[in-house]
## 1
Amino acid sequence: MSGLRFKKTTEFDEEVYAVHPDDYRGLLEALKGEGLDYPRSLSGVDVGYGLRVVVHLYGIENGRKVTVFTDLPYDAPEIESVTDLWPGLEWFEREAYDLFGIRFKGHPDLRRILLEEDWTIHPLLKRYDTGGYPLPDWRPAPWPEPAPWEEPEAAGEGGEA
Amino acid sequence: MRGPTTVEPVPGRTDELIINMGPQHPATHGVLKVVIGVEGERITRAVPHIGFLHRNHEKIEEARTYPQIITYTDRMDYVSGLQNELPFILAVEDLLGVEVPQRAKLIRTIFFELFRIASHLVWLGTGMLDLGAITPFLYTFRDREMILEITEKTAGARMLPNYFTFGGVRRDVHPDFFKDVAHFLDFFETRLPDYYALVLDSPVFQARAVGVGVLSRERAIARGASGPVLRASGVAYDVRKAEPYDAYPDLEFQVPTRTEGDVFARFWVRFKEMEESVKIIRQALEKVPKTGPYKGKVPPRVKPKPGARYRAVEISRGHLGTYVVSDGSERPLRVKHRSPSFANLQLIPDLFVGARFADAIAILSSLDPVFGEVDR
Amino acid sequence: MSRMPLPADRLVQPKLVGYDPTRPRPWLERLAYTLFFAALWAMVILAYGAVPALFRRFGWLSTTAGFLAYAVVEAVLAFLLAAVVALILIVVLRKYLGKVQERVGPMHYGPAGVFQTVFDALKLLGKEDFAPKRVDWLIFRIAPAIVFVSAFLLMVALPVAGGWVMADLNVGLLYIVAVSTLGAYGVVLGGLSQGNKWGLLGGFRAGAQLVSYEVPLALALLAVGVYAGSLRLSDIVEHQYGVWHVVPLFLSFVVYLVASIAELKATPFDLPEAESELVAGYNTEYSGMSFAFFFLAEFVELFLLPGFMVVLFFGGWHGPLFGLAPGSFAAGVLQSLYFLIKVAVWVWIFLWIRATLPRFRDDQLMDLAWKGLLPLALVGLLVAAFLRMFLEVL
């Protein structure tokens, strides 16, 4: 896992990796090689300044619990798909695309799953209210400095942005 | 591995029939639609479509305070309603740092396992209805009624009780609770031999189930299958053992597994799970103090510290996870429910293609999806 | 098996509408269903015994006009009998399923729900008989008639007592095979004509099932004919004095039993209409009276197939006559009662099977029919032939 931009912390009993979007797939490939064979979940989160993709993994043999997340800007929510590593994440990625508009490059069948094909919005974005109408005073927050995955000079910074 | 985007008839091919199975099909347990191509009785293609019961819980929950959300989680897997509350509550308890008294943990565990039995009874009845036997349905629903009565006495509601809360349970159990539960267990153990005779030991059922819809161990893990579906394929992964919660560390129980991975194995695993649940509840009944605190100390306004927590529990259908992201306010930034039926339904193209049409019904009932949680 | 009482402090007690399940009245049920059975008996006596005896008594059968009048009256009576049989069996099935499943069954119409089917039939009569746009109209309309008429025609050949039969055909066994196969045509055509994919699949399944079970069924009937030395049903019954055919021809009986359940399209062989798989199979698009005809025919067959089983294997109307002269009207009345009791026992066993078993798969039915029943039926035929030879030599 050398050369990958990520930061590892421990929260409760899980290892949490914050990773740069470009190294997201590389890190997950490396983790898959470490025996994390069971895909628990993949979820999108609207964190106010961008979209976060969170993958929860589990090793059936070793009992390791790992959370990997990365943040994407609102204007280019694109990331590599990992369905070939864990086919079980196929519908989860479709769900994240459906509800957040995150595009997974290389996904075999990326279309809406819970909503009908003729929906135009991605309803879980914070810019919409629960009725699906745009909130007039919503503005994206500024991108955090430093980004969650960049190794800070001094230890003690939380992994969460 | 994957289906085409839609199922279109192949030009010039007249021996394949494209059928819309669902969303109003009697055996789809709600509102699943599977577009299948059949050659006579053999299925050539299958593309599942979900979302007909989508209510976007996750968006609604972002607009609610933490205690209000618990009642929404009930409504995901409405067959085992109470179990769905627990992962969310555990995650918030972790973020809050709340201690749960041992008595509350045991009460939660008793209810959790009672609802597992209730849910498996519903599955058994409807599953056998899909296979053409009407009688088990009536028997199992009558037994389930007793669990719902017990729940009603304590929690006030039957199916969606909204009973668990941060730090324990919402109110103390009814004075008759422990007696009723013991009575139910005694009664249920006299019923189990009937179910074995009607289902697992029935030669007609065995002819329909053995060797049908075989799921390999590798495929089950890679597809993220969980619960009885995973354990019937030979993986002893049970969240109650892997990351114990509530009173499970103190209780002794087996994780029934089978290696065949067919419909019969999935039925068998659920039967054994009901037996294990009875054992768990009996142990918990011995350990639980009759009186004592039922709720830990929780701040009146639930405001977890900023952070994120993923907690999982083993509900009747498998691994139910809830990912709670808190920004320090009274409302969560994001609540994500990872529902077991959602992941298990991804197996439909794997298991349906090549099976006979009647087998597809048996496979679907052995996956036991509940669409309240698939579509959320 | 113990029952759990309703908790006394339950906040909302169940509302009781029209009946009280906690206060069952078994005597009323027994009385009502005994009266039902008596009504059926009276209908059988009227249709098979009294009216023919009346016509014979006054010598009306010798004139053409008299014979035509006899035919019309008998046809009407047979239709009424079919309707009564269906009405009774439907409510008996529902009541019996209720008993098996620890619930009360129909309770609202009539004492203990005995008139439930009457109201069901009235409801079906009041429904629009809807045909979707894409059906093959002529065949869609003819198919229920074919099914019902075939069941109806079977009733003609049923001997219920000594000399009590509407048409004592000398090719009775052949007639049964031919007419019961006709009914399956109605099911196949009904399934294929309705422009619905579930109906199409149901029709396919019905066709496959028809081909599979008719062959062993015919062979089982043939074994009876060989052993009795006649195809006439009354001769076959007479041949069973002393020992019923079920003893020497046990293999053929088993084949007939399984094949007749398949013919009934009842669980575990209800593949053509498998409601959890094919929605409703061949009668998906039928409604109103067209659907009622399918339904009626099914229950008439539920009476007739055990009826023929009793005729062929269980000594038909045989029973102690208490000194009554065989052939007299009083003997006929008693014999028809014996016949009906035997049929009732078999109907009960058919219902029991239906309430207990799950459904077979289509290929398993065909496996069973071709690899299990067919060889068994052939062996049964051989046994019948050997026994016949043995008896002849004796």
## 2
Amino acid sequence: MKMDVQDSMVPVPFRIEKVRRELSDTFTMELKPEAGGAFRFQAGQFNMLYVFGVGEVPISISGDPGESGVLVHTTRAVGAVTRAMGQLEVGETIGVRGPFGKPWPVEQAFGSDLVIVAGGVGLAPLRPAIYQALANRDKFGKLVVLYGARTADDILFRKELERWRGRFDVEVKVTVDRATDRWAGNVGVVTNLVARGGFDPMHTTALVCGPEIMMRFAAQALVKRGVSPASVYVSMERNMKCGVGFCGHCQWGPHFVCRNGPVFTWEEASPLLAVREL
Amino acid sequence: MVQIDDLSRIIDEHPFAHGMDDTLRALIVGCAANERYDAGQYILREGGRADKFFLIRAGAVALEIASPSGAIMVETLSDGDLLGWSWLSDPPVWTFDARATQLTRVISFDANCLRRKMDADPALGYEVLRRFLPIMAHRIHAARIQMLDLYGPGPRR
């Protein structure tokens, strides 16, 4: 379903088909338009999700862009709206506006190595890019997924990470910030994995998503390894409201994050991140 | 039994020694030994005298700190990493436990032997410290990022 500008401000009712608890505070909803039809989007785009009577929040799409029959969102309950969203049950209705924003440049990365660096719930906006890359696996060199989480219990999409790691054509490395001796994997920051990942920096496109500080350090680590700042992409988060660059709430220097982003090159983002309180 | 020439070649393959002058490498090889640790075996223990450092050739090592509820892992190291810089501090005492989490092969260096050579040859001393410092800076930087608890609850919405 493609919306034009006029009706981009009107939420469309979607029915909640499935709810899955991913982590103690994170859940995934599968939605279908009540009026029927498909929902098409590109990896990296987001929707404004409206919990009726509570409020509206921007949430990245976490499903497969090749699967238009169902809309998938993974959300961490951290505030009034997302907590209310987490209380919704199968069969209830939620308002959807979107999709909005500039996507991950997955197709532009054809022919190069693709490195995905995710931190915490930042894996959710990157999952559609991973699905797209896997669907076009023969068009990339190496496909590397580097993921950092707080603890082993906070690893998002754990079964999928294990499945991807089980393939012979994807390198998946996971690290956690804290662990006990029951954890047999890596411990340390995700930037350490960037230094160890097996990819050719001169021919790499990197997609980075997570907390802003993590993205900053991950992008710096990628550039230090030799990846061009123009080939490193980050997904920014600001106070998105209208989704189409009218209201100005998400203005970030010369950009509206909702319309010119949320995906920016590190070349575009790094000078702005250096400006305090922007 | 690993011969000195073999040891020299093995050390040369490790990132720590990349680009090291032949004369200086020959000096550090004289303090080196090949070691292996089985999964679960401790390479060093907190509070013990730091009389070695290690270049990890293959395997995985967990840096741990003991707590009443069990060991807490603070970092893992693997192929190509360097383990142990407490031998450079005074007093030279290990501040963490290091446990092999799988079969791990390392080159160990006798710190007393190396310290004597570094004292006698400032060029060697400078070269060794020049190679340690970026690793130490990187580890401190990483530890600070870890302390930030980046993946905790984000903005409320």
